[in-house]
């Protein structure tokens, strides 16, 4: 008999009477075979572990007692607990009349003491329980529903930002990019989102009310990239489905937790977060880039129409969660200042480089020619960055149409702005003194409720404890 059976306990993946199992078929059941163990185990919805069995030994009148417990009348007691009339008690708890108590708790008349997160059973105080203590799988390590949304639209603003932004200039959308460029960048971005190739996720933790109502004085918001999870099936065409499954990009998380988090609050379905630093992953004209947004702020409206999310994970009966977030009207949106450093790390879009479909021309100081870095290559001495284009300008169609105006940063991070100088081969001469000078920017967005099913990986150490990297995913 295993030690945990003798103590009346059970451990996920190490059940009474069953060999250790790390992988099983979701929803499958198996009998508990050891003497004194009752019921069946159920495989967790993600296939990672078997659930609990119960071992009952000793006792009187049908009761079971182990580890010094006392049980009568069908009760079950372990670790010094006392149980009568069908109650279950562990760790010094006292239970009567069908109650369940743990860790010194007291329960009567069918009540329950401390819930055990990770046992696959939704107990009092839990919003979900998927049989593990992992995150990024729909149910977090504290058995709370993981609130996450996926952007269904993201647009570069072409007007000044709301007065709550600091500053409200939006130099990126009104000075750097002409109206033609804003339109030409936003159109393919919308297509990439609806086709499922661009997936920008916004996890939101700390909600006291999952409908977005009432007051949640401290919430945490993050932005990260993701890919659709293959287990959900093929992406449903050009659409933005509700509750679709995604795997988080491991470069934006650490041990299952998002990085670069903004702190904020939710009050009566109004979300306010920031200021702080956010990494905004975007795909502009075929270039995957990450804008570093300094002094970032988010203002949005949470839809008051809440529904029960599709399983898995199984949720506490009656639990409802808001469906959408809207930040594309009024004072709502995402604002921040794009650092010189992040623009300098973004390769020039191939379409704007020499040989491209809309190559920039050499136009009397208002535009220059630029060299592409090549697919998957980083910026180096032999190619140009997007920062080079922002500082040097870009006109196309034989200099007839300007799409990017030569522009200096408008937000200094300390003291005065350090001017950016275009040098040999249209390269900006950078130094650490001006890496965090920035261009003010403003974006609008909308988002639908979604679900994480895991995270990507290259190596197992990038996964959470107990997981390994298999075929590019932590499982």
Number of helices: 5
* Residue share in helix: under 10%
**Care to count the β-strands?**
33
Shape: elongated
Cα-atom Rg, whole angstroms? Answer: 28 Å
**Biggest sheet details:** 11 strands, mixed
Distance between the termini: 30 Å
Q: Indicate the proportion of strand residues.
A: 25-35%
Secondary-structure-based class equals mainly beta
Give the uncertain stretches in residue-range form.
1-22, 54-75, 77-87, 89-112
Would you tell me the overall average pLDDT?
Answer: 84
Short description:
With 475 residues, the chain is mainly β.
Describe the 3D structure.
With 475 residues, this protein is mainly beta. It is built from five helices and 33 strands. Strands 13, 14, 15, 16, 17, 20, 21, 22, 25, 26 and 31 form an eleven-stranded mixed beta sheet that branches. The longest helix has 16 residues. The chain is elongated, with a radius of gyration of 28 Å.
């Amino acid at each position: 008999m295993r030690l945990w059976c003798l103590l009346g306990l059970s451990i996920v993946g190490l059940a009474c009477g069953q060999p250790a199992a790390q992988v099983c078929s979701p929803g499958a059941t198996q009998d508990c075979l050891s003497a004194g163990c009752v019921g069946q185990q159920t495989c967790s919805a993600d296939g990672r572990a078997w659930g609990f069995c119960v071992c009952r030994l000793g006792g009187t009148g049908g009761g079971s007692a182990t580890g010094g417990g006392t049980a009568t009348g069908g009760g079950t007691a372990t670790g010094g607990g006392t149980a009568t009339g069908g109650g279950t008690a562990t760790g010094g708890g006292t239970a009567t009349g069908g109650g369940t108590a743990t860790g010194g708790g007291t329960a009567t008349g069918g009540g329950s003491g401390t819930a055990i997160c990770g046992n696959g059973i939704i107990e009092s105080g839990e919003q979900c329980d998927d049989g593990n203590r992992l995150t990024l799988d729909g149910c977090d390590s504290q058995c709370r529903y993981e609130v996450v949304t996926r952007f269904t639209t993201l647009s570069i603003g072409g007007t000044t930002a709301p007065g709550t932004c600091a500053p409200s200039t939006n130099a990126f959308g009104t000075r750097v990019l002409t109206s033609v460029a804003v339109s030409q960048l936003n159109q393919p971005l919308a297509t990439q989102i609806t086709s499922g190739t661009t997936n920008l996720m916004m996890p939101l933790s700390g909600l006291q009310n999952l409908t977005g109502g009432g007051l949640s004085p401290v919430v945490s918001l993050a932005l990260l990239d993701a890919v659709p999870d293959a287990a959900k099936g093929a992406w449903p065409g050009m659409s933005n489905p509700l509750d679709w499954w995604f795997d988080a990009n491991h470069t934006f998380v650490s041990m299952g937790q998002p990085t670069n988090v903004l702190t904020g609050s939710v009050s009566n379905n109004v979300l306010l977060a920031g200021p702080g630093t956010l990494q905004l992953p975007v795909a502009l004209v075929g270039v995957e880039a990450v804008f570093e947004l300094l002094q970032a702020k988010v203002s949005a409206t949470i839809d008051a129409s809440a529904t029960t999310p599709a399983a898995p994970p199984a949720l506490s009966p009656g639990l409802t969660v808001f469906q959408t977030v809207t930040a594309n009207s009024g004072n709502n949106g995402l604002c921040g200042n794009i650092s010189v450093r992040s623009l300098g790390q973004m390769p020039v879009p191939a379409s704007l480089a020499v040989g491209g479909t809309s190559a920039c021309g050499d136009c009397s100081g208002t535009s220059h020619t630029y060299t592409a870095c090549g697919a998957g290559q980083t910026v180096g001495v032999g190619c140009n960055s997007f920062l080079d284009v922002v500082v040097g300008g870009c006109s196309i169609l034989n200099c007839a149409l300007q799409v990017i105006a030569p522009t200096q940063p408008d937000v200094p991070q300390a003291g005065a702005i350090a001017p950016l100088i275009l040098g040999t081969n249209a390269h900006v001469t950078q130094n650490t003194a001006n890496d965090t000078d920035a261009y003010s920017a403003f974006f609008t967005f909308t988002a639908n409720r979604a679900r994480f099913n895991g995270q990507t990986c290259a190596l197992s150490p990038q996964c959470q404890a107990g997981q390994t990297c298999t075929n590019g995913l932590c499982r």
